[in-house]
Amino acid sequence: MKFKILLLLLVFSKLIAQQNNSVVKIQYSETIQYIPTTVNNYTGTLLVQNEYSYYVSDYINTDKATKNEDEEDVIVVNTPEFKFNGEVFTNTKTKELTENLYENKFLKKSFSVTEALPKIKWTLLKGEKKFNNFICKKAKATFRGRTYNVWYTEKIPVSAGPWKLNGLPGLILSAEDTDGIYKWEVKNIKYPYTEKGLNLKDTYSKRIKYKKVAFKEFDEMVVKAIKNKIKMISARNSNRDGIKVGFGYNTLQDREPTNEWRTQTDFN
Amino acid sequence: MKKSFFGLIAIAFISLSSFTTKSTDELVLHNCTYNMYNASGQFLGQLTLYDVPDNVSCGSSKAKQVAIDYWNGTH
Questions:
Q1: ipTM of the complex in this document
Q2: Which of A10, A88, A14, A12 is nearest to A53 (CA)?
């Protein structure tokens, strides 16, 4: 009898342990369409295990409808190709988020950008839609200068989503910003997901290999680099043709056009 | 009455022609602003060429090459 009870307890504790170790794997079709004629396609993969989540975005290809460089006011310049679209780690216990990214425009370096897990103020909206047989509810939020419409399912009670999108009472299966630049839509879901030896805590500690910098500090570095470039270009004025040159930049196309510390979007 | 009417037209004609006439050695300049993108369509910034001669149009390969040279020189 004692043995049976012990066996039952063992099975029960194993079940609880498995539940705690519940894992979700979701793949998204991710697109970034900076301009109407060019669509950049990625596969986004989100893994959630206990308090850890890991999102990675892998480049597939770029679809071009027409050559926009024929337009009078457009110049397409050759820049080194960057296929790394970044990865995001979150820890809901410590409320930390780390984004590994490559800043390809001004700093041209990789960074591990750390911040407190962003609290996104979602508005829950009416409406239901099915994605991969999961009934989803609608929500909307503005986060760092960009407004997102998302669909989430309460059937998977995981407060996560692609990139930094989090904080809803269910997993986000589809998201799109209102400018139509950034878009994610579920391709497939594995829930519960089992993978031998998967340990997101380990993945997290192994992947941090870039210069670690706080989000605010990183943003300040980028702004400084933009201002330096404006100065540098105007200092090179009056070339052999007697033509003067000016440079300006705006952050409107960026993933985070503004943030908690900066509202300025135009730099001239 | 007729005389004063024609006088007014004449003044208007003279003043208008004074705006449009320019001496042949006067150099007319203009500005060209370009939106710079990479192959992914990502916006890299806006480059403006000031004081471009009027006979060089903004869409011409000559003007665009000057812009590209500047861009490459600062990157």
A1: 0.82
A2: A88
Residue B68 has its nearest CB partner, among A75, A246, A252, at A75
Q: What domains are defined for chain A?
A: 20-214 (2.50.20)
Q: With contacts defined as CB-CB under 8 Å, which chain A residues touch B45?
A: 105, 229, 247-249
Residue A231 to residue A20: CA distance in whole angstroms:
55
Along the 268 residues of chain A, how does pLDDT read in single tens digits? 565 655 544 444 443 444 445 589 999 999 999 998 899 999 999 999 999 999 999 999 999 876 666 677 888 887 777 667 789 999 999 999 999 999 999 999 999 999 999 999 999 999 999 999 999 999 999 999 999 999 999 999 999 999 999 999 999 999 999 999 999 999 999 999 988 888 888 887 777 678 999 999 999 999 999 999 998 887 776 555 677 889 999 999 999 999 999 999 999 8
Chain B 43-72, residues with CB within 8 Å of chain A CB atoms: 43-52, 57-59, 64, 66-72
Give the best residue of A245, A250, A253, A268 to mutate against chain B (max B CB count within 10 A). A245
Residue A75 with chain B: CB contacts under 8 Å: 34-37, 47, 64, 67-68, 71
Listed by number, the residues of chain A in 132-191 with a beta carbon closer than 8 Å to a beta carbon of chain B are none
Does A105 contact B42 at a Cβ distance shorter than 8 Å?
yes
Among candidates A72, A241, A248 on the partner chain, residue whose Cβ is nearest the Cβ of B58: A72
Tell me the C-alpha distance between B40 and B30, whole Å.
Answer: 30
Long-range contacts formed by A163-168: CB under 8 A, 24+ apart: A163/A44, A163/A55, A163/A57, A163/A86, A163/A88, A163/A255, A164/A88, A164/A90, A164/A97, A164/A99, A164/A118, A165/A120, A166/A53, A166/A90, A166/A117, A166/A118, A166/A120, A167/A118, A167/A119, A167/A120, A167/A122, A168/A122, A168/A139
Enter the pTM of the model.
Answer: 0.83
